[in-house]
Each structure stands twice: as C-alpha cells, then as structure tokens.
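Here's what a typical entry looks like (Metallo-beta-lactamase domain-containing protein):
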Amino acid sequence: MPATSSGSARPEEPRTAADRHLGPGAHALMRRNFGNIGNAQFQHVAAREVGAPDPPEVVEVAARTFMIQPGMANVALFETDEGLLLVDAGCAGDGPALLRAVRRVSARPLHTVVFTHGHVDHAFGLWAFLEAGERPRVVGHENLLDHYARYSRTAGLNAAINGQRPGANGRSWPSAPEDFVVPDITFRDSLELRIGGERFVVRHAKGETDDAAWVWAPRRRVIAAGDLVVGYLPNAGNPRKVQRYAEEWADAAEGMAALGAECVITGHGDCVRGAEAIRDELLTMAEYLRHIVRHTLDGLNAGLRPDEIVESLAVPDHLAAHPRLQPHYDRPEFICRNVIRRYGGWWDGYPANLLPSPTVTQAREVAHLAGGVDALAARARELADSDLRMACHVAEWAFLAEPQSPSAQNCYVEVFDRRREAERSLMGKLAFSQPHQRVAAARA
C-alpha cells in the first residue's frame, strides 16, 4: 500500500567533530538500522525539543493498520470504531511529529497505548498527546516500572555510554518523575484488550529487555513486535548494557512464527510481509540464537574459559547468510559473551585477572619491556597488516603507558581507524571510535 509523508524533508544536518570520529559509513549504518535518525537527535534522544531530521513516514500495512516511523523507532497504529490503539511512542523529541502523523491518518480519540518496553527510543514521545488533551489508558509489562527506576538510578551512566548531551531541561537522560509515563495497567504474562469489539493480545517475552511485550491483532493478522524483530541480528549481546535474554528471545520468535501472521511491524526498519517470509525470519532467528546459547553452555560445562568459548564460536552458513539477520548492530560474539555473563559470572578464568594490577600499570610495564612506547607504536603499525586485533592491543598499551606521547597518540588513532572501518556492527564501530575521543582529551 502507498506510503504517505507528514511534511517536507528537512535539510541535512551539519556534522560535528564527534560525528567525524565515528568514521566513514557509521552514519549510513545508523540510518540503515534506525531509519529517521540524525546527528542532533542521536546525541539528544531524551530531549523533547530535538526531533528527527525528516518527517514521519506512514505506511498502511493492512486495513486501518499503520506503521509510522517518526524517528529511530517504529510505532504501530490500529484504528478501531472505538478509538486508536498505539503501540510505542518513539523518542521524546518524536512526540509532536508523531501526533501530527497520527492525526493525518485518523481523527478518532487515542484509546489505548501499549509500550513494548521502556527504552528511550520507544516509550517517551507520548507527552505530546497528553499535552494535547488526549487521555488514553497506558499498558506495559510489570517490569517496566523497574526499567524506569533503573534509568533514573543510572542516568549518568546511560548518558555517557550513549554519547548524550544535556537538553534544554539540563538532563541528558530520563531521570525525573515527569520524564516517565507510568502505565495504568500492567500485566505479567499476557493481557487481552477489547477495543471497538476487536481483540488484541499483549504478550510478555524477555529479549532485549526483561519488560518486553508484543501485540497480536488476530483479525488483521498483524503483529507489532517492538524490538523483538528489527531486520538484523537481535541485539542480544550489547557489551555496555544490562543483561539480554537470548533463549527467551528465541521462544518469543517461535511463538510469533506459529500464529500465521501476514505482517510484522518491527521495532526498527522495514516491516515483514507474507506468512512464509515471516516464518522464515522468525524461525531462523530462533535457530541462530539457540545455536549460540548451546555452544556457550557446552563450553561452560566443559570447563572452557570465556575467550576459548568465544573464539571457537562458528555460525553455520545458512544462519550467517540470512539477509535480515546480519550483524549490523550486534555481533554473535557479543551474544555469546552475554550468555557467559548470565551463567558464568564476570571472571575471565585467568588467575592474574581476578585481582589484577591496573590496566595502565600493566601497559607501562609492557612499554618498559618493549623498550618504550615508540617501539610499541612501531610494532603496532607492523602488525596492523597481518593481525589487526593484536595490533590494537599493542597500540592501546602504547597510549595508556604514555598518553602525552605524539607517537603513541597517532598510532592509537591510526590502528583503531583501520579496525573501525573493517567492523560491520554499529556497536563495534562506536567502540573503536573511542581512541579519537581519548586522544582528543589527552591533547586538550
């Protein structure tokens, strides 16, 4: 069905020094993963006054059923005779544009809102509807309240690891009571809603979060999946975030696959259409996740160290080749480590690392043994052509041993630039861009 737009495109945003540090292809990868996201909103995802760079895209995926892309996350809209069911509400800055997009589709009142989880890009744009006088009932899983509480307690941490800057209210991350819309109705396993004489089923499923939910509209054969389906390898490993749940994610994928849906409205990217395509993606996703979990548990049960388990992980070709399960955001190795963390604790199994000397002290000793940081920098550049992973270790030792050394600084940036440009996952690219920031701080 045809797509509609709620306005004209905005001009391209200027790039900042921080943006340039992400390297070539990083912003294209962000757009590929998250759609309508720009430099400004990417650094102000909690700010109500900073919206997405382009107007929302609205696609009618079934009768009276719409996928809206107001920003980096998708929103599902179901129109009924009694009112509207909205699934998710985008970032805080997406609220006004989402409200306009919804009102271009329908004048019916907003009856119910379901949050698929409490992430900053899915549950924070509803304020615009509330300020406009809408009074919907809000539904979320019972763990959503704990999710909000965790956001408040770790606002500084989340702002730092997500590269966020303060908005007009002085906050870089949701933390004050007025930042959160608290559900009117919570549920544990599943909840049936009746709106306009039609049945909608909300189901809980751990995945990227422990408060995740998805919505099944049986009459329309449509699933609003939230981030349980995103069009790339599930974000079940994220190195800098709280625990993910690969096994339960696989359970959810199999549960959705059994319904015979004709459309899945995804949390990000394009929707999935056609029963066969949906079953193929969901069942392959489940098999992929179960393969990683099985490999990891087999290694733990065999007494292997974490690095041995990760290094020996091999993904079968038919899983690795699936076009909608590519590692554009997460990586299989990261998922493997998250399973290790869940079942095996944080120690890497090397006795020296149980109560280690500080990393900077270790780096200085390595530099002393090598004959100085210049020798380490030269060796890192030499290794970069044959063993880029090892080159990164050597370059980092040089910089940590003597951060003010121009030789170490230049080598650190150059080697990790090569690593970043070869990396396919967005999380990897972001991590490998950090030498730019550290060198800039040292020079300042």
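The radius of gyration is 23 Å.

More examples are in the samples folder.
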